[in-house]
Prior knowledge:
Chain A: It holds the Pfam family DUF1656. The complex is a heterodimer of chains A (67) and B (285). Chain A has one domain. In chain A, 61% of the residues lie in helices and 9% in strands. Chain A has helices spanning 15-35, 45-64; strands at 5-7, 10-12. In chain A, strands 1-2 form a two-stranded antiparallel ribbon. In chain B, 34% of the residues lie in helices and 26% in strands. Chain B folds into two domains: 33-41 and 186-282, Beta Barrel (Elongation Factor Tu (Ef-tu), domain 3), CATH 2.40.30.170; 49-175, Helix hairpin bin (Helix Hairpins).
Amino acid sequence: MLQTVSFAGLEFSPLVVLLPVAFLLVAATRFILHWLHLRERIWKVAWFEVALFFCYLAATVYLLGGR
Amino acid sequence: MMKTMRVLVTVLLVLIAGGAGSWVWNDYMYSPWTRDGRVRADIITVAPDVSGWVTKLDVRHDAVVKKGQLLFQVDAQRYHAALAKSEATAENEKYALALAQHKYERRKQLVKSQSISAEDLEVARINTQIAEANYKLALAELETAKLNVNRTKIYAPESGNIINLNLRQGNYVSQGVPVLAIVKADSFYVTGYFEETKLPLIHLGQHATVTLLGGGELTGEVASIGRAIANTNTQSDNQLLPQIQQTFNWVRLAQRIPVDIKLASVPQDIRLSAGMTVSIHLSEQ
């Protein structure tokens, strides 16, 4: 699984990939909630989305990080 | 009721996010893994035991050699001459000893008939011992000369690959100066440089997964954990005063301790070279 990201002889932390993946998942969730008209019902949307980002990040690290 | 539900959902998610963030932090900072690992191997430096011109070079760069295979040969003429000289010296000393023993035996008879003094007999006995010692010395020198002749042929001490061969036929090689190196076959292992904060999580025999930067995965187990690394603060200047390094007050870098990983097996499709970069993950048990 994704333990290191090597590009052109440089080795990067897998977070370089996992962070954008988590961000894209948050964006997708946001789009779906908006489409379902649920987003306006959320209390403190900013808090909700930041928390969602950390949940998605942990999930991607767990699932894609080879654990 | 609806308002309570809305608040509850956000609060619950924030709490879960706190736990998830904490797990990610601990996973990266305190689980036993490192990207700072290198492939290593047992390297044998080969140096001739005698000096002279290289008269025959039987290997090429990167060649595979077997244990006991002839690598190169040093001009043996000088050592053959030294051997002949030592043989002659040994023979000379052998006859000198025989002569001294003969004289001693003869004088033992003469002293009974009081033809010579007891002192003369004692001198003859000591001369015999001196001749015996000289003979032993000559034999030892003969052994050294034979050894030198044998050592003009340099054989591979182990099976492996020739590395860094800059030797050419006709070069002059000196005793004890390495001229090539051999990477011992099947001696590859991995050393991971783990931060000291992760050491409590590492123990001997722990299962390791090694990922090569160029692709490929190997498995192994922890074979040893380094007991010492260099400390720059222990160096002294020319007045023998300790040279203590300055540090930033707020930032400390964790030292890295070498941990050796013994590889279980190397798949056929993976070609290892000592010095390659690897990432190492140790099991948490």
